Amino acid sequence: MISSQKLFIYLSIPFVFVLAYLYSLFVGEENSISAPSKDGITFTCDQDNYNGQKVPATVVNKPKSKTQTTIISWKPNNYYFGEKWSPEERCQEVAKRFQRIHNRDGLKYLVAEVDTWVPDREMNVVCGVKQENAPCDEDDLLFTLEGKDDPNEVLKSLIGRRKFPSKEPVLVRGEKQPETFAEGKRVYYDMSEILIDEEPAF
């Protein structure tokens, strides 16, 4: 007859393996999101100065040049988002998404778009894509926008002082240039310059 102590040990062994497996999945998922890319570049949530106060800011950190550049300052008085997430929470989550997209296949442009993955519903979103005219898929999502403001203007406001080079896609000959987001106007903000990481020359 098996003693109660031995029985407890036998029953505990599978449970330990299950816990170890679940932990490995969790750690693996966290590392895949937050780990630096091959070039060592990381995206994190830090702080920026806005009207004399500190606000959360999504930043890019470049190890070779030992520099940090603000991409988006999450100002407390904008109304482009819902109330579900605080500026700090949004800053943290968007930094993780920047990192994931950059690690996956590179990140070159920021663009405001309309989602294509939610059935029977349209939502304005901001995505990170590798090239102009690339579709904005769910895996490219950085954050969603609410309200009736022009998404192009919202994105321009969010990146604020950071003057990314911007461009609009070249039109097919004879096409009319769209003037608003609703008409199809898209502005691609080129991030490649701020992602260059070189050791300073002496």
Describe this structure in words.
The chain has 202 residues and is α+β, with helices and mostly antiparallel strands. The chain has two domains: 1-34; 42-190, no CATH class. It contains three helices and eight strands. It has a five-stranded antiparallel beta sheet with strand order 6-5-4-8-7. The relative contact order is 0.13.
List the SSEs and their pairings.
Blueprint: H1 4-34, E1 42-50, E2 53-62, E3 67-73, H2 87-105, E4 109-114, E5 124-129, E6 141-144, H3 151-159, E7 166-167, E8 188-190
Antiparallel strand pairs: 1-2, 2-3, 4-5, 4-8, 5-6, 7-8
Q: How many structural domains in the coordinates?
A: 2
Specify the structural class.
Answer: alpha+beta
- Provide the gyration radius in Å: 22 Å
How much of the sequence is in beta strands? 15-25%
Average pLDDT taken over every residue: 77
Terminal CA distance reads 78 Å
Strand order of the largest sheet: 6-5-4-8-7
Please give the largest β-sheet.
5 strands, antiparallel
Helical content band: 25-40%
H and E string: HEEEHEEEHEE
Number of helices: 3
Structure summary, number of beta strands: 8
